[in-house]
Design goal:
It is a single chain. The chain is an all-alpha fold. The protein has a domain of 158 residues: Four Helix Bundle (Hemerythrin (Met), subunit A), CATH 1.20.120. The protein is 71% helix and 1% strand. It has 16 helices and two strands. The protein has a two-stranded parallel ribbon with strand order 1-2. α4 runs parallel beside α6. It is globular.
């Protein structure tokens, strides 16, 4: 039997444990049960996306024009850059992840969202904490630790309470589930909330000093990516890929290998950021070993997701949600393998303290996390609002500008970072030479930042049209963004 791209074998679909037949009315009930917190989270996330974009552009432009807007202390690079990081990680990504979690759990647990009002209040408390933290940060009050700059006395308690309230809704929904089998996305989402609270509280404990503080800082910073941002977004990708193409996940066993290997090895990885620092060698050796062992979950997830989509890549023409999910999945594999490589001492001595690190982080935080969330919003919002995205052109424009702009960003800073590192290692070459070697690449970064910003504006404007325009009629039918698989039967020869 020959099955063309975009078609699904009936026998294979019948054997799926994941794609259980649920009525459209049933799914609509689950979606509407979390409508308020889901929409609230996405609305706040989009606002933070705009704020973080402006702060990021200013940070980039200051590399090309150091005196730009330097008359006020709160606009200096030392305050703008960490404000950009926190706005994007805790404002845009984390708040959008709250909404993704609250939308996924009712569907996968086959029950209405529990404690939805608690989740909504949690999102507002989280947002209040972030606003307090960023205002204090721009005023010069910082804890001085990367990813932990927000004030631990005034901002961090609100973040803890907010995340705990959203997590309580997630876990209460899980406890009320009407299914016996738990799909892998449930594992990732449910685990991510206690993981985040544990590492965030540990990272903010006030009695670490000096070298201990640096070690705890990178224990948190690295795990915030791996056990928080990665966990929820892998859950989203694991849901979107089989759901959109109408095909079960390739291997449930591989998905669990990926989950448990991530839980086992990732927590020990952070110390490779301190190679060459004054910390015990056993900590560095343990971190490098754990980083190498991360090849297990990375390969397991990569194979599983690729084999799920293989033969169905043509469906990406019909679904921006699938397109972004596939790019995000590939980016997760790429950034993870890149991270394993840079944990090696021979590579780290070149890339450490260079712009390569920024390129690497954006491959993870943007090409993986942000594109995954964009894909999730393209899929989720029409089902919650019950109306279609108004413009195919705006969707294409958004994907091309953000994906292409970030590709240019990562390539430019990657090349510039390597040249910078080699210059720093060259005997007899002054520090000024390493700075000069990065100038053209930093200019390319600023150009790419403008391209990405235009893409963000297109997405924000399109989201506004979807949510608030009255010109578009509501519908209960799947919007055009979902690829509807064509079921075929065997042909008689």
């Amino acid at each position: 039997m020959t099955i063309q791209q975009g078609q699904v074998d009936v026998k294979q679909e019948d054997n799926s444990q994941y794609l259980n037949k649920a009525s459209a009315m049933e799914m609509e009930t689950y979606d509407q049960s979390g409508r308020q917190p889901v929409l609230l989270g996405f609305l706040i996330a989009v606002i933070w996306l705009l704020i973080g974009t402006v702060l990021g552009d200013l940070s980039s432009f200051k590399f090309d024009h150091p005196d730009l807007l330097s008359g006020q202390a709160y606009l200096t690079f030392g305050r703008i850059r960490p404000a950009h990081l926190n706005a994007m990680v805790y404002g845009w990504a984390s708040t959008a992840m709250f909404s993704v979690s609250l939308w996924l759990m009712p569907r996968l647990c086959r029950t209405r969202l529990r404690w939805g009002r608690v989740a909504s209040c949690g999102i507002l408390v989280w947002t209040a904490g972030l606003i307090v933290g960023l205002v204090l940060l721009l005023q010069g009050y910082s804890d001085g630790l990367e990813w932990l700059e927000l004030d631990r006395m005034w901002a961090d308690p609100l973040l803890v309470v907010g995340a705990a309230m959203v997590g309580a809704s997630v876990w209460r929904t899980l406890a009320a589930r009407n299914v016996h089998h738990l799909y892998v996305s449930v594992w990732y989402v449910a685990a991510s909330y206690p993981w985040f609270l544990i590492i965030f509280l540990a990272g903010n404990l006030p009695f670490y000093r000096g070298v201990e503080s640096a070690a705890v800082n990178w224990f948190y910073a690295h795990n915030a990516l791996g056990l928080w941002l990665t966990a929820v977004n892998l859950a989203l990708i694991y849901y979107l890929l089989p759901k959109i193409i109408g095909r079960p996940i390739y291997s449930y066993w591989l998905s669990l290998v990926g989950f448990w290997a991530l839980a086992l090895f990732y927590a020990l990885n952070g110390m490779h950021h301190l190679i060459g620092g004054p910390i015990p060698s056993w900590m560095i050796a343990t971190s490098i070993t754990a980083s190498i062992m991360m090849v297990i979950p990375v390969i397991a997830v990569g194979i599983n997701q690729h084999m799920t989509v293989v033969g169905r890549f043509g469906a990406m023409r019909y679904s921006p949600a699938l397109t972004l999910a596939v790019i995000a999945a590939m980016s997760y594999t790429a950034v993870s393998l890149q991270g394993i490589m840079t944990a090696l001492v021979s590579v780290n001595r070149i890339t450490h303290f260079t712009h390569w690190t920024i390129a690497h982080s954006h491959l993870g935080l943007y090409m993986f996390v942000t594109l995954s969330l964009f894909g999730g919003m393209y899929y989720i919002l029409p089902r919650v609002l019950k109306r279609e995205w108004p413009s195919r052109r705006l969707i294409r424009l958004h994907i091309l500008l953000t994906g292409g702009g970030m590709a240019l960003y990562i390539i430019a800073l990657g090349i510039g970072g390597v040249l910078q590192g080699l210059s720093l290692l060259t005997p007899g070459t002054g520090f000024e030479a390493s700075v000069a070697s990065t100038k053209p690449w930093l200019m390319l970064r600023s150009i790419s930042a403008v391209i990405i910003s235009v893409g963000h504006l297109a997405f924000i404007y399109h989201s506004y049209l979807l949510a608030f325009s009255r010109k578009h009629s509501t519908t209960q039918l799947p919007p055009f963004i979902e690829f509807k698989p064509v079921l075929v039967k065997e042909r008689k020869s």
